[in-house]
């Protein structure tokens, strides 16, 4: 058993060296450093077991006892460490580009030698450890790999719901919307995607797949979310209602059963309904699966989720930066954060293939997480300047505004403009990442033969701040967080066009229900369908309301109308002329008293906002509490920090 201990020991040292260089070169946070160190135990165990087994096998074949004398032992230590070093190098070549320093390579060389020397010195002590301990570790490792290996691609195998209706409708392959038949409907939801980071009007864009989709779609240039983070926003997308109404806010509530998700109505009308989501905060446990025949969230996708979660958490440092997307996707099937786009696409394509074989039309929700923190796209989506950056921003931690210093910080480090720009660059890399995945998913819809007969809708639950208003991540009601992209491609495609009036994601329920031929159900939703000029459907809306949590009990609310926006919360009011100031930089509220035109604008918005505030006052949050596990999931995504 010597060789196992030997391997573990050398591996520990090498991994510690790797982490110390990594820690310096990309400034991983303390939490990630600890996870990485813990990962050292598993990482070195797996790798060295393999190397040790091979060396042991060779020794047995050659009938040699390589532990017999000191010289042999040293050579073997060197050989084993050299093999580990070579494999590690191959796996982590991208890190050398990133670290890019001769010092790093020297340090690794030194660690290699030190691991051999130290093992040689400490060997007598290690030999006294009972052989059962490394044997037990070997068993655990083997069992772990075997369990991990049992998870194949997802199969769509929904059970027929007993009470599903038998509404008459054409077979999906003959359905088009204009004939009043029942089209398939695909909703692609991209978490944390700012509308203004997508590029549609340029030849070279960072989102070629979405730009291509837009060429046969209607693009909504003034789409707004109802809230600033996933759970309340998605609850609005499903129920048409505001956070005060459905009660999903403040990070503690689940979507109550009493709320009517449009998916329940679709299901009852005979639609097959399925979802693939990578965000645990809208998992089954949080009540979001209402009405879905099949709901693939990180939990029910993987019965040994807890084990894999721990395993992948420990291995995170090894594969996070991945030039190895397949390996990365494997270890990210269940991760501390979320599933990567590659895995979501693989699952979504498998589910779409299954749905395509069904006789009934389907609704499929696909939810990508990648633009959400951590901004760590695979390196192939990075640009040279992203990799060449040498500063404190690593994409794992959000920057925080330090009022006293008047500057943003990551950890203890004050950020300059290039550091903030690096946040945006890493975020843009995630946009390339998720765009590529969407391209692959659309290709999957085409190969399943359902693309041309489906409505395909793309939107986001909210955006992200990169320093605007002293904010990072997502919260509050400002444009970077609330302005979201929205694309709709009808069956067969539409002439490329833009729609430049307000729409809001809470209009999606009525929109989808109308497409499914259920006009009455659509009319019963609280927000009307999104206008679709090509089909002559839907009426423009005049204004949009948004509400975001403000402290443990309050809300900040906004109303937007005619390119003016009024915000009101416990800290007072803000008025923005979004026509002249789209980024909401200059608060004009102080001028309302002295400017008659401004006053008229304010009064219009104020009376709208008062009516909204009054309407929302009657609802209380549901406040259903979370389990410790759900709390952990929220914390991992940064909501409870
Ligand atoms: Zn979100």
Question: How would you describe this protein?
Answer:
Strand 10 and strand 11 form a beta hairpin. Helices cover 44% and strands 14% of the residues. The protein folds into two domains: 148 residues, no CATH class; 359 residues, 3-Layer(aba) Sandwich (Alkaline Phosphatase, subunit A). About 17% of the residues have low confidence. The strands form four sheets. Strands 1, 2, 3, 4, 5, 9, 12, 13 and 14 form a nine-stranded mixed sheet that branches. The protein contains 21 helices and 18 strands. Helix 3 crosses helix 5 and helix 14 runs parallel beside helix 16. The chain is globular, with a radius of gyration of 27 Å. By secondary structure, it is of the alpha/beta class. It binds zinc ion. The site of zinc ion (ZN) has 6 residues, from loops. Zinc ion binds next to loops.
């Amino acid at each position: 058993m010597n060789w196992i201990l030997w391997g573990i020991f050398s591996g520990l040292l090498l991994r510690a060296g790797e982490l110390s260089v990594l820690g310096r070169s990309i400034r991983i946070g303390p939490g990630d450093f600890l996870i990485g160190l813990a990962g050292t135990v598993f990482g070195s165990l797996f790798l060295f077991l393999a190397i040790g087994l091979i060396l042991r096998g060779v020794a047995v074949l050659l009938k040699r006892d390589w532990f017999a004398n000191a010289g042999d032992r040293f050579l073997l230590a060197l050989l084993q460490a050299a093999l580990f070093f070579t494999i590690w190098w191959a796996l982590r070549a991208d890190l050398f580009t990133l670290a890019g320093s001769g010092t790093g390579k020297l340090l690794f060389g030194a660690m290699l030698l030190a691991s051999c020397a130290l093992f040689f010195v400490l060997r007598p002590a290690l030999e006294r450890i009972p052989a059962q301990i490394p044997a037990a570790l070997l068993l655990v490792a083997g069992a772990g790999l075997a369990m991990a290996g049992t998870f194949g691609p997802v199969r769509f195998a929904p059970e027929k719901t007993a009470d599903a209706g038998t509404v008459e409708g054409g077979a999906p392959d003959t359905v088009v919307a204009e004939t009043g038949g029942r089209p398939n409907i695909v909703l692609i939801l991209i978490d944390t995607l700012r509308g203004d980071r997508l590029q549609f009007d340029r030849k070279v864009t960072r989102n070629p797949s979405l730009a291509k989709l837009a060429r046969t779609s209607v693009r909504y240039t003034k789409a707004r979310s109802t809230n600033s983070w996933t759970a309340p926003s998605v609850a609005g997308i499903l129920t048409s209602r505001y956070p005060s109404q459905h009660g999903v806010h403040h990070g503690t509530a689940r979507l109550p059963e009493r709320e009517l998700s449009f998916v329940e109505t679709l299901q009852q009308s005979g639609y097959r309904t399925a979802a693939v989501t990578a965000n645990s905060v809208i998992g089954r446990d949080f009540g979001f699966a209402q009405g879905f025949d099949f709901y693939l969230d990180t939990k029910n996708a993987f019965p040994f989720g807890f084990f894999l979660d721990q395993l992948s958490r420990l291995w995170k440092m090894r594969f996070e930066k991945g030039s190895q997307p397949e390996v990365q996707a494997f270890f990210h099937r269940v991760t501390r954060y979320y599933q990567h786009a590659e895995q979501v696409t693989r699952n979504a394509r498998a589910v779409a293939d299954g749905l395509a074989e069904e006789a009934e039309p389907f609704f499929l929700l696909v939810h990508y997480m990648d633009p959400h923190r951590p901004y760590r796209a695979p390196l192939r989506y990075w640009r040279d300047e992203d990799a060449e950056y040498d500063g404190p921003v690593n994409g794992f931690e959000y920057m925080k505004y330090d009022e006293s210093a008047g500057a943003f910080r990551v950890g203890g480090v004050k950020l300059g403009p290039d550091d903030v720009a690096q946040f945006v660059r890493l975020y843009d890399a995630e946009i390339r990442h998720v765009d590529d995945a969407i391209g692959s998913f659309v290709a999957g819809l085409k190969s399943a033969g359902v693309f041309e007969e489906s409505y395909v809708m793309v939107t986001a639950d909210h955006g992200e701040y990169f320093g605007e208003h002293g904010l990072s991540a997502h919260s509050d009601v400002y444009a970077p967080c609330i302005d979201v992209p929205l694309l709709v491609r009808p069956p067969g495609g539409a002439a490329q066009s833009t729609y430049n009036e307000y729409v809001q994601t809470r209009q999606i329920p009525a929109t989808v229900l109308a497409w499914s031929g259920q006009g009455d159900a659509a009319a019963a939703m609280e927000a009307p369908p999104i206008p679709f000029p090509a089909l002559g459907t839907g009426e423009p809306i005049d204004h949009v309301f948004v509400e975001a949590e403000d402290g443990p009990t309050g809300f900040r609310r906004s109303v937007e109308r005619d390119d003016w926006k009024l915000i009101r919360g416990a800290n007072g009011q803000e008025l923005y002329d979004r026509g002249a100031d789209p980024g909401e930089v200059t608060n004009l509220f102080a001028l309302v008293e002295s400017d008659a035109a401004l006053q008229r604008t304010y009064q219009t918005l104020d009376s709208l906002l008062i009516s909204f505030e009054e309407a929302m006052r009657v609802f209380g949050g549901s406040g259903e509490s979370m389990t410790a596990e759900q709390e952990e999931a929220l914390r991992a995504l940064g909501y409870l920090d």
